[in-house]
Amino acid sequence: AVHDTLMAYDERHGYRGPLGHVELPVPVPGGADQERGSTPTGSERLKGLLDDYPTLLDYEAGVVLHVDDTKARVYFAAEGEQAIDLDAVAWAAPFVNDDTVGARPTIVTQVLHAGDIVRFRRMTDGRWRLAQIPEVQGAFVSLDPFDGAIVALNGGFDFFLNNFNRATQSRRQPGSSFKPFVY
Percentage helix, strand, coil, to 5, in the chain? Predict the structure, then answer.
């Protein structure tokens, strides 16, 4: 629940843009060098472009090969070339600042451009959805009201991305917790 809520919160605050941008390799015609194996194939070159962007959680990096108003073709190292439609990027209103987002996109070219390196998540129905690792973090502690036992404890978005546990290691300001004692 914390994971899903942090993703939804982050999406409501806008799309921060691609992870990077690369010049796409020019296809090499099948020549003598390619037959001998000394020249990498197109898919090997594209995989090489994604080497610096490993899969994190279920967020897979891909390089955008082609974009038009209704769809894009994105290359994933593990999945190969995949078609992406407007539904996959419809949430991606541009991030302006912490309090403002731009207008939601109406065409795919408002979000993706050829050469962009972006992250996608595979949804349960098999479709791809544009994604970004949330910048926001959160904590959740669930207690049993009858005996005070801890039922669930979550200290952030993902332990392997940031192992600081916000539920147990944070130093909190007292806020309003002192008011019952004072008043």
Answer: 20, 30, 55
